[in-house]
Amino acid sequence: MIEEGKTVRMGLIGLGSMGRHHARVIREVEGMELVAVADPYGDKHGVAGGLPVLGDVEGLIAEGIDAAMVAVPTYLHEEVALALAEAGVHTMVEKPIAATVESGRRVEQAFTQAGLLGCVGYVERCNPALLEMRRRIADGELGEVYQITTSRQGPFPARIADVGVVKDLATHDIDLTAWIARSPYATVAAQVTHRSGREHEDMVLATGRLENGIIVSHTVNWLSPRKVRETVATGEKGAFVADTLHGDLTFVANGDVRSEWERAATFRGVSEGDSIRYAIARREPLRVEQENFRDALRGREADVVSMAEGVHTLEVVEAVLASAAAGSTQTL
């Protein structure tokens, strides 16, 4: 790990649509210094500043970095991450951990065997609305949780070329759902469709059950003119609704309490109770993610996404695609 108080010498590989934001945030985080950047295709967004744009991961390693942020296309994650592990460089890899489960497992094993910090960049875990939702659920404010649903829809992002909507977007929802519920997936079933003329799917509907019994569903596409980012957790005391576009969290209480249900001869459902929108601090999630990485590098307790969690999410992602292809429920 990095000695407390020592500035973390950071390297960044991949200067595209995500890399440019990581470059800015790393420069803003106290205790981090961006000392090297690399991208074989150059610096089209002009984020390198006075740093030379190196051509590959070997050039990045040669700069004597302590840790690296990997923001290259998904199909390159394994190659770049394994080179960093071999060089003894702590690493955060942008989601998903790799292109396939087997590839992800090799990456995880390399960092574990080297005794290095390896984590995955699932930035939604740093969204203020989801952080608050998870905390309140853990405190029992929802009672028993019955269901978690997500909706992630919007126009097609020009940045995507190598994966479909499941590995690009639904991977966020799978990760955050298991994280909020504190339980891995047990089963999943899905349907996908191809409407944009690309080889990869652009819409998915997926349902599943977690090991702790919570049922889940995900509606994800990049063919909607209306941008939606919503996560809803429903339980015995009501529902939490997180608007992750704006960082808002709302609680809608059940108007009926469970003791009344049990006395009723016939259960007729619940009624809408009071609604509360919480005032929460809205810090930039990407900055929180890098601060967590810094703290973990210094040996502090920090909520980073382990590579093992990244592999499980990828297992669910592949099960979603397998279910859609086979027309059957997949067991994890």
TrEMBL record:
EC class name: oxidoreductase
Enzyme Commission number, as recorded: 1.1.1.18
Keyword set, alphabetical order: NAD, Oxidoreductase
Domain Gfo/Idh/MocA-like oxidoreductase N-terminal positions: 8-121
Domain GFO/IDH/MocA-like oxidoreductase: 131-240
Keyword Cell inner membrane belongs to the record: no
GO molecular function: inositol 2-dehydrogenase (NAD+) activity; nucleotide binding
Signal peptide location: none
Superkingdom, natural source: Bacteria
PANTHER family registered for this protein in UniProt: BILIVERDIN REDUCTASE A
UniProt name for this protein: NAD-dependent dehydrogenase
Organism: Serinicoccus hydrothermalis
